[in-house]
Amino acid sequence: MFPTSWSYIVEALGGLAxxxxxxxxxxxxxxxxxxxxxxxLLERTTGNRLAAPLIGSCLASILQSGSAASVLVVGFxxxxxxxxxxxxxxxxxxxxxxxxxxxxxxxxxxxxxxxAITIGVFLNFFSRRRKLAEAGGMxxxxxxVFFGLSILEGACLPLSESAIxxxxxxxxxxxxLVAVLLGALLTFLVQSGSATLGIAIALASAGVLSYDxxxxxxxxxxxxxxxxxxxxxIGGSQTAKRAVVIxxxxxxxxxxxxxxxxxxxxxAVALVSPGDLSLLHRGAPPEAVVQALRPHxxxxxxxxxxxxxxxxxxxxxxxxxxxxxxxEALLPTRRSESEPRPRFIDVRVIKTPTIALVQAWNELxxxxxxxxxxxxxxxxxFDGFNPKVAAAxxxxxxxxxxxxxxxxxxxxxxxxxxxxxxRAVEIPTMLELVNEIEQVGDQAEAILNYLMRKKEERLRFxxxxxEELKRVATKVGEVVTLCEAAVKGDEVPDLTAxxxxxxxxESELQxxxxxxxxxxxxxxxxxxxxxxIIVSFSKISQLCFSIIAQRKGLNP
Length: 556
Fold this sequence. Notes:
Elements: H1 2-43, H2 51-63, H3 66-78, H4 84-105, H5 113-126, H6 130-156, H7 163-168, H8 172-190, H9 193-205, H10 211-232, H11 238-260, H12 262-271, H13 278-281, H14 286-293, H15 297-316, H16 320-330, H17 353-380, H18 387-415, H19 421-424, H20 426-456, H21 463-487, H22 496-519, H23 524-554
Helix pairs in contact: 1-2, 1-6, 1-9, 1-17, 2-3, 2-4, 3-4, 3-10, 3-11, 4-9, 4-11, 4-15, 4-16, 5-6, 6-9, 8-9, 8-10, 9-10, 9-15, 10-11, 10-15, 11-16, 12-15, 17-18, 17-20, 17-21, 18-20, 20-23, 21-22, 21-23, 22-23
């Protein structure tokens, strides 16, 4: 008896593994086909209350998972691509995308599973055209979904005869809450609402789950899908945390309402589903109800999810404006937001490389802004040393060091993902830009250290020497400003004249410096310090010219 039961369990787990593999393969195929379109769609996102759920449903449909789409939304909010108002609308819309995927699974075209796998493998491995190969991967995933589901359902059929299952069917009211929790737990563990619904369909079709419990499990999927982005928001921006907390609250209220009015909910599902539910209303045994509805159980569960999701959308979509306005009171801003850490990049979005690349450019632009602000504060020290400003410069250097490390790791990981050729070539250049911006910060900190040494050792520069330093600082500052604009993608004028002007100024300063040394107006120690400062300014200008040239190379 035990070996037989064990073989059924192994078969069920194998079917589940194939089903999940199919969902992932189909998702990857869809992302490859639609990745660039997805990026453009997000770039055009507006605050339209109806457009945001549409984008959420598109995301969930492409990823074949509302929970995965929700995690992406957290990344988009962290990257500044979505506001809180837009994020709430998109999160509500992810349920629509999940329900579309579930409706697709409910068609149960098992007979087409193996042909789809065969054609998908042939196209994916033997086609020389990229688009056909990507379509083959998607078709392979579709076939694996239905094949895995059929194996899972077949393995669960013998379990329906178990005495334990029969005993569980007797406690229907209490089992509903257990089924909700089971649906939430499965979704959280598998990280896919569609996979949870596939399991529910298999268990209900085999008679392991009663009709009521299966419907409750469908509702529980929503709670699990809302918990996943809550975990993903840890370490994210305050806006992302507010969005997922509000979304979780909305989901829990919707689930509570569905359980309170459960009989009415079942009638609403029956209105849009095939099959006769009269046995259920007459109090027939649960196994008799499941047997009568077995041919239609998949459609009933899919429709239950659709009814629940659409009803939630219509009830709560008008309230997102109120929640967005009340978010500050719900989760006040904390000082930890100012800690040195990435603001835009998010490794949870790395599997959607076109969006991850947008995040990386935003973070790179932030690095440029920090370096430019750091330089401005540094130059102000030549008019009078201010310890607070010096501390601010050092704080910015710490932020640049952190961003240098995290951006390098992010870009290396991103380079392993599939990107179009024209976007993939950006990554090596971005790595070089990250290094050079961080070096600008290092040189600025070096000049600050020279000024600190001048103050501590009470070294004096002549009035003409100080004037020359301010001149070169102002001229290099022009390059730093242009560099900041270039990193953001703005148009930068021809720099030939400015480059020649700075080179001429450096030569002039070195000549003046030598004259002062010969005349005795400047001692050796102060002279060496002056020369080191000029060299650092020269390195900053060279780095900025290099950054501008490389950025222009990506936008010929």
